[in-house]
């Protein structure tokens, strides 16, 4: 694993010069071996200036409303990034998790107090932190179609870092896995396979050079991007840029690397390389380009592609009998 959850980093700050604080970032993830503290300080000074401006705008917006409404202004603010101190509130409201929590008071704690299915309990690693274990255990009983699946621990860990609250993390998990990404973690993983195929279709449309090399070497998308989707980029991209990675693929140097690949090993290595480096470390530039470089991409287009890919996968898994 390239990043690991680590409790001690909560005590670290950007200005600290201790070895422990240099080894992990402010969220508890281990930094890469080529991490440069000097470069990080320069980047953080620019980052904090942007974050301070956006925090003031978010504070004004939230002071004027009791309940967050989904509108053009909120959409624009979200695309530019939600400040750390507002993330729990915004994520809970935007995902519908807050509504679920309020409609089901005490549900999370009732699940934890109830008798547990040993089959679910056994597959969750016992060495996980208590809060992490609790949320995964409760969700496994809440959604038995999913239970527990590898990759969910990364998502849960990240949610706990942000919310610092088991119950809120539980309902955010429910919104993500039950509504926003249905069938990602069910036994068939149909939703996961579908979105990987959708990515392939988008690359074919937007970045044909990359699609052509994948097609020429007969490389299935699941071989190179399944980890991206399973852990929702938590173990892949720097913590502040965990968004969809189409912009990473569309960057010129990335396209050149992949299009020159001579086979599966090189393709896999180049896909790994494009999730590192200066381009993805600058979260603000990344967030700006993610909505610009691939060109227009409407919800209607995604919905249409998902339907097409889902039908194609279902047909392949259940061929008509003769």
Written as H for each helix and E for each strand, in order along the chain, the element string is HHHHHHHHHHHHHHHHHHH
Mean pLDDT: 80
Termini separation comes to 46 Å
Number of strands: 0
Give the DSSP E fraction (strand runs of 2 or more residues): under 5%
Radius of gyration: 21 Å
Largest beta sheet, briefly?
Answer: none
**H/I helix tally:** 19
Helix content: 55-70%
Q: What best-fitting shape do the alpha-carbon axes yield?
A: globular
Classify the secondary structure makeup into a structural class.
Answer: mainly alpha
The low-confidence runs, each spanning 5 or more residues with pLDDT under 50, are: 1-19, 242-251
How is this structure best described in words?
This protein is mainly α. Helices cover 63% and strands 0% of the residues. The protein contains 19 helices and no strands. It has helices at 19-23, 37-63, 72-80, 84-95, 97-103, 107-113, 118-123, 130-142, 152-163, 166-180, 190-206, 208-216, 221-230, 246-250, 252-259, 264-273, 278-281, 283-290, 299-317. Helix 5 (97-103) crosses helix 10 (166-180) and helix 12 (208-216) runs parallel beside helix 15. The longest helix has 27 residues, at 37-63. 30% of the residues are buried. This is Growth hormone regulated TBC protein 1b. Keywords: GTPase activation. InterPro entries: Rab-GAP-TBC_dom (IPR000195), Rab-GAP_TBC_sf (IPR035969), Rab_GAP_TBC_domain (IPR050302). Pfam families: RabGAP-TBC.
